[in-house]
Amino acid sequence: MKEALILVLTHRFTRFALVMGIFYQFLFITVWMIGFGSVPAQMSKLKVAIINQDTSMSAQVQNDLKKHLPFQVQTAHSLPRAIEQLQQRKIVMIIEIPNGFFKDVRNLKTQAHLDYYINESNPMLASMTAQQSASQITEDFNQELTKRALQGILQGLHVPGNRAQTIVQQSMNRVVPDVHILYPVSNMGYIMSPMMFGMAGYVSAMILQLNLNNAIRDLGDKLAKWRRFQTRMIISVAASFVYAYIASTYLAAWGTPIRQGFLQLWVFQTTAEFAYMFLTQIPALLFGMYGLLFNIGMLIAQAIYSGASIPRMILPRLVNILGYVQPMPYAVEGVQNIVLGGPSVTRDGVALLVYAIVCLLLCFLISELKDRRQE
């Protein structure tokens, strides 16, 4: 038994697996800690727009509202323009102070409505933070206005105790939130579907390329050099269509409301698969089975860079820049728009197509150089 253990443990595949097991512990923890570790301190980078339609409202009250916001606050002058920014995920929430708001605040018989606009097709953390902030802002506003109402009324009137208590009760809950959901999402699984699409597509491409490389290598001289490259390309392209169709169909079977249509999701995901196929093929061509190390490393990194779970605007600057040279951020954003709701995916689709073409040319160059070296 001892000899068998020594033989197994000293085998190159076993040593490789043990080393990689340790390596990925460090890689996972490092990458995820960099991403999630920046969240608490960087949440203030999220942007909120305030639109004040009430010209009678004092600047002091508007400043008090800004103090309650743990975000970067910008003043907007047009609701349609602000909604466009919300659709493009440049801001996470719009707070609109409607005309007559301050008048309603001072009228004890009415309730003043503060309007919130939130885009739920944002990354989950941004959407949840915006909704929690809407509730907290309303509560803080109520307390502040109640205090102001009491100071103004009780100082000017000599009110009996019972009457004063009644006034206090009437002064409570002066602001009622009206939350306008831009793209309502009823299931958290739908929110996470863009990341699942990206991860599943990348892993399937990675596994296929590794096995294609092993199969072509074992066939050896049975395939001419051009047949090797052509066969790999045909299988990769065909598999991209099939993988994307199966994934889109299965997602629809779960009842996911695909807002921009099944066909657009299938075509877009196929384009993303092209990029994944040709990207993961490069390490497989260069390093064989050891290319799995590089592909898994890129997979882990892109899980953070993609913006599906953490808004990219709050990630460290270097990490955010690295996201622009990887395909998954474009794929995740496109699927977010198609499935959850958002603007056109043309820009993301073009970026993925260009990425796929560049990687395809690199695959061709690497294959040619390897064939010449073997000759």
From TrEMBL:
Entry's transmembrane regions: 12-34, 190-212, 233-254, 274-293, 314-332, 352-369
Coarse class of the protein's main subcellular location: membrane
Annotated compartments: Membrane
UniProt topology in membrane: Multi-pass membrane protein
Keywords: Membrane, Transmembrane, Transmembrane helix
Protein name as annotated: ABC transporter permease
